[in-house]
Amino acid sequence: MADAPTKNRRIAIVAASVFVGMIGLSYAAVPLYKAFCQTTGFGGTTQRATKAPDKATDQFIMVRFDANTSSGLPWEFHPRQTVMKVKIGEQSMAYYDARNTGTKTTTGTAVFNVSPPSAGAFFDKIQCFCFTKQTLKAGQAEELPVSFFVDPALLDDADAKNIKEITLSYTFYPASDPAVQSKTVANTN
């Protein structure tokens, strides 16, 4: 049987190994969660695509657009259209407008969400202002386009095939806001 100091040393090594392993997993959790959300559309994370399918279906779905701005960013931000009826599988374009109402140049970063969450795996963005930081001078206004399509695979998915309406929601935060880092974990493509 091992003596007490040897036994204590083994316990200390096991405890230290568990501690180091837990720290390693906590650092790996963010990129792993991000990859999981991007792959599955979990939590309303949209997909990123380079082009729409070659052929659209003959079915339509309503897409609603929502815009919010953090109180820390002196911008007006709103969609030009609040709802669009789009053909499933067909590329569509929506526009948002942003205007810096402050007295100095500011930079914002948009985070997004799609609801219902089960629609995230089927909402594909081709071009989006959320992929880059947006800088506006005092008083400057900017048109922000979003090119997207709804994947026809939605019609074959047991959880999503009865969805009649999808909401695409954006919130702009100051680019230096630490809240942006935590909110983009599941949303950045």
SSE map:
Blueprint: H1 4-40, E1 47-48, E2 60-69, E3 75-79, E4 83-87, E5 92-100, E6 106-115, E7 123-128, E8 134-136, E9 141-150, E10 165-174, H2 178-183
Parallel strand pairs: 1-7, 2-10
Antiparallel strand pairs: 2-4, 3-5, 5-9, 6-8, 6-10, 7-9
Number of domains: 1
What structural class results from the helix and strand content? alpha+beta
Percent helix, as a range, is: 10-25%
Strand neighbour order, sheet with most strands? 1-7-9-5-3
| CATH architect. name | Sandwich
Distance between the termini: 56 Å
How confident overall, as mean pLDDT? 81
Uncertain residue segments: 29-45, 179-189
Radius of gyration: 22 Å
CATH class: Mainly Beta
Query: What's the CATH topology name?
Result: Ctag/Cox11 (Pfam 04442)
User: What is the CATH superfamily label?
Assistant: Ctag/Cox11
Strand content: 35-45%
The largest sheet, given as strand count, sense and whether it forms a barrel, is: 5 strands, mixed
The helix/strand order is HEEEEEEEEEEH
Q: What shape does the CA trace take?
A: flat
Describe the structure.
The protein has 189 residues and is an alpha+beta fold. It has a single domain (42-183), classed as Sandwich (Ctag/Cox11 (Pfam 04442)), CATH 2.60.370. It is 23% helix and 37% strand. It has 2 helices and 10 strands, in the order H-E-E-E-E-E-E-E-E-E-E-H. The chain has helices spanning 4-40, 178-183, and strands at 47-48, 60-69, 75-79, 83-87, 92-100, 106-115, 123-128, 134-136, 141-150, 165-174. A 5-stranded mixed β-sheet has the order 1-7-9-5-3, with no helix packed on it. The protein has a 5-stranded mixed β-sheet with strand order 4-2-10-6-8. The longest helix has 37 residues, at 4-40. It is flat, with a radius of gyration of 22 Å. Mean pLDDT is 81; it is low at 29-45 and 179-189.
